[in-house]
Amino acid sequence: MSLLHVKSFEDYKETYKKSVERPEEFWSGIAETFKWRKKWDKVLSWDFKDLNVKWFEGAKLNITENCLDRHIVERGDKPAIIWEPNEPGEAHRVLSYKQLLFKVEQFGNVLKNNGVVKGDRVCIYLPMVPELVIAVLACARIGAVHSVVFGGFSAQSIADRINDAKAKLVITADGGFRGKKVIELKDIVDDALGQCKSVEKVIVLTRARIPVSMLKGRDVWWEDEIIKVETQGNPHCPPEEMDAEDMLFILYTSGSTGTPKGVVHTCGGYMVFTGYTFTNTFQYQLGDVYFCTADIGWITGHSYIVYGPLSQGATSLLFEGIPTYPDAGRFWDITDKHKVNILYTAPTAIRSLMGFGDEYVEGKDLNSIKTLGSVGEPINEEAWEWFHEKIGKGKAPIVDTYWQTETGGFLISPIAGITPEIPSFAMFPQPGIQLVLVDENGKEIEGNDVSGNLCIKFPWPGMLRTTYGDHERCKKTYFSTYEGMYFTGDGALRDEHGYYRITGRVDDVLNVSGHRIGTAEVEDAINKHSDVVESAVVGYPHAVKGQGIYAFVVGNHRHTDEPDLMRGDINKTVSRIIGAIAKPDKIQFVSGLPKTRSGKIMRRILRKIAEGDTSNLGDTTTLLDPEVVEEIKRGAEEMRSK
């Protein structure tokens, strides 16, 4: 155990108390465990009114020295990255810390050869392959700002992000694999670049071996550029010295309409926060194999596949494919094959795999698992129990992590094997996170057995610093609702023991006949029905109640035979768990829900369908399965016509 681990529940309480009473002393102690070129002059200066936050002011570092160089002496030959490809028959790859550093330095020189200098923005649009990790770290190595775009976004979405960041260079691949599909990444980039004047070069990785168009003077092959570096004779790429508050990356939030919102994270505080929360929350021990199933295109992949684990010398497993290809046992096959110790995934994936039945788990050796994790949304009780019993064999703790793109890392979560766990509760704030619940007027709600809007009243090192190119937008979005506080946008309850439960987005709270009902609460009740795989609940205009409750439900098979009986069963279940006021007014059975690959349900699409406004659903190409939207629209129209 180290300074980065709390050792008992009593230790957690003492650590948390110190972290909120003497936050600068606490975070300074954590920061001392990292490698700095120059130590800070001041731990923290901050002003939420003008949103001016600086951690470890005056410090100099390069985050890749912490993720790579500092591990070489003791862990150089240990696995840094294990890569599992989309096709089970294709050989997996293992990169040691020494090999990963070599490849990062090599590609850092490729970027320099192609005109990239400190401060330039680089857009990365790659599949989940080791080269994605290499590209991210190479940018950080030379001081370039990376903007990773999930490899399922449309050309327009890419163009918007490139233009907002004024990216100089794009890194992509000929194509990528996702289950049975081949995604033509280079073609999508080509379509985007017609609108992008800032891009000077495109580096193309060979992955799918499909025909692509290569423009002379702009497009170059990754492999050819590596050969050029090799012929230059000096593979070393010295790490650029960065200020703690220099930009590390921009990550655009998904799901909103209009101009994309580029969340900016900086080098020093983000490194300290992700490294600490990774090690402490999962209670990571050197040698553990850690498998996060997210995509690096989202914040989970940035913080808890790349920077958090690698800064701690961990072995991080990344997976190119999807959990149901070639069958619904893929996660369990990977866990068995690589003897995974920590598995971190999304509730939507858990519910989906649970719906396929236990036969895909049977016969798989999951005894290596020590810790399970959940991310993306609150995990409902039934999925929690299945995950705990079937995957964790009743012995592995589950850390149900609550956090956001904007927070950089975990805000609320159990600590594995240390703090208590209750299904569907996020439980306790992380050390250093000063949570408050406020009412609609911003007045703090004290005590336990209360609920309100969830805010943070004091800075933490991993928090966003701005939205790229528009600081006022950042202040207005996150810091203007309640003066002097960061507003998460979520509601929460704090029970009689002080345990936190997230009740959902405040705009996902329905007002039914004057009663405020959280959509997450209704979904949790519906999901408890034995024939329900998962559900999504939204509000729609109701002539009598103000808002009605519209439920989109993925069932097993029985509902197709007797849908009205199934609707009655669901309503009775909801009535029993919450009360008659929470019964859905409309229940539409669907084969799937519109989700991003990270497992987020796109409720804005469902809300528009429920309201009967399907003329402009926004960009649906970012979804895992865009075709499901058309099916849902047809089903809604049929329900309205009856």
For the structure shown, list the relevant keywords:
7-stranded mixed beta sheet, 19 helices, 642 residues, Rossmann fold
Would you give an account of this structure?
It is built from 19 helices and 30 strands. The strands form nine sheets. It has a seven-stranded mixed beta sheet with strand order 5-4-17-16-18-19-20, with helices on both faces. A hairpin with a 7-residue loop joins strand 14 and strand 15 (261-266). Helix 1 (9-21) packs across helix 2 and helix 7 (155-165) packs across helix 8. The protein starts with 8 loop residues before the first helix and ends with a helix. Residues 254-258 have low confidence and may be disordered.
What topology emerges from the helices and strands here?
Layout: H1 9-21, H2 23-31, E1 42-47, E2 52-57, E3 60-61, H3 63-67, H4 72-75, E4 79-84, E5 93-96, H5 97-113, E6 121-125, H6 130-142, E7 145-148, H7 155-165, E8 169-173, E9 176-178, E10 181-183, H8 185-193, E11 201-205, E12 219-221, H9 222-232, E13 242-243, E14 247-253, E15 261-266, H10 267-282, E16 289-292, H11 299-311, E17 315-319, H12 330-338, E18 342-345, H13 347-355, E19 371-374, H14 381-391, E20 398-400, E21 435-438, E22 450-456, E23 466-467, H15 471-479, E24 486-494, E25 500-505, E26 509-512, E27 515-518, H16 519-527, E28 532-542, E29 546-555, H17 563-577, E30 586-589, H18 603-611, H19 627-641
Parallel strand pairs: 4-17, 6-7, 6-8, 8-11, 11-12, 16-17, 16-18, 18-19, 19-20, 29-30
Antiparallel strand pairs: 1-2, 3-13, 4-5, 9-10, 14-15, 15-23, 21-22, 22-24, 24-25, 26-27, 28-29
